[in-house]
Amino acid sequence: MLRILTLIFRIALGGLFAYAGYVKLREPLLFEMAVDAYRLLPPWGVIAVARTLPWVEVALGAMLLIGWQLKYVASVAALLLGVFVAMMAITYSRGTEASCGCFGFGEKIGPLTLARDTLLFGVAVFVAVQAWLRRPRTSRQWSAAAFDAGAVKNQR
Description:
Helix 1 (2-26) crosses helix 3 (43-66), helix 1 (2-26) packs across helix 5 (111-133) and helix 4 (70-93) packs antiparallel against helix 5 (111-133). By secondary structure, the chain is an all-alpha fold.
């Protein structure tokens, strides 16, 4: 049951990251303005984040979708979401009105966006923990699985 839940969460996170990055790539100037509105980074940091973060999100989304190096990719996704939540919480607590910039533009940071991103952070942590706890198959297990698959195929 945990494996199915982890798979569902992994695919959902991958799709969300890929979509979020895609939206930001379509409107790079709006995303740069959204990053700047947080008032947490110097101008050079705003430019660096606005130019690199969408590509990182698309890459993370793709890697989560295919399950490549899941331990590391899910951990990076959780870390990134944790940073997002912290930055949003700081901005909100200061009373700064800023667009979240998460899945488009115009959504103000508020209790609902903080709750949603905190939930996504929890999902990412769950996927990362499950990936680290799962034991990798040994070469003998892979051979046995391939043999079993071949035996089933030959019986048909």
